[in-house]
Amino acid sequence: LLSSPDNSAPTLHSGPLQSCPLPPLSSLYDLTVVQATSPDQFQIVSYSQKVAYAALISQMTGYYDDLSNHTPVTDDHLRVGSILAFRDSSSWHRAKIVRVVNLHPLAVALKLVDQGCFKACTSPGDLQPLADRFAQLP
Length: 138
Description:
Radius of gyration: 16 Å
Strand content: 25-35%
Number of helices: 1
Oligomer: single chain
Distance between the termini: 20 Å
């Protein structure tokens, strides 16, 4: 975790997000498939947690829409595998950098980790370091 000498600054997340625990083998699990790449590679979200994920997006949007919560994004944040907050239209999402095409001018490929879709980002203003409070799964 990165921290700033200013005690009012948020703690920033570094490293991967934790994986969601799977239910026991013999139990039923209500889920939504958010991305399917092949029969053995797919991403799921717990159906019962959909409201929690929507609340997470709402909280992130409220937090990052307040410019006083912004932290300068540096080249160190822009590495493959980094988890950042990404503004897509009018809402903020958790995103993983999957490819860095260029740093100056910015061109990165992102995977929205909670939705499973891929996006391109060319605007530094659409990226923020992820505050640690948003690194936990709902």
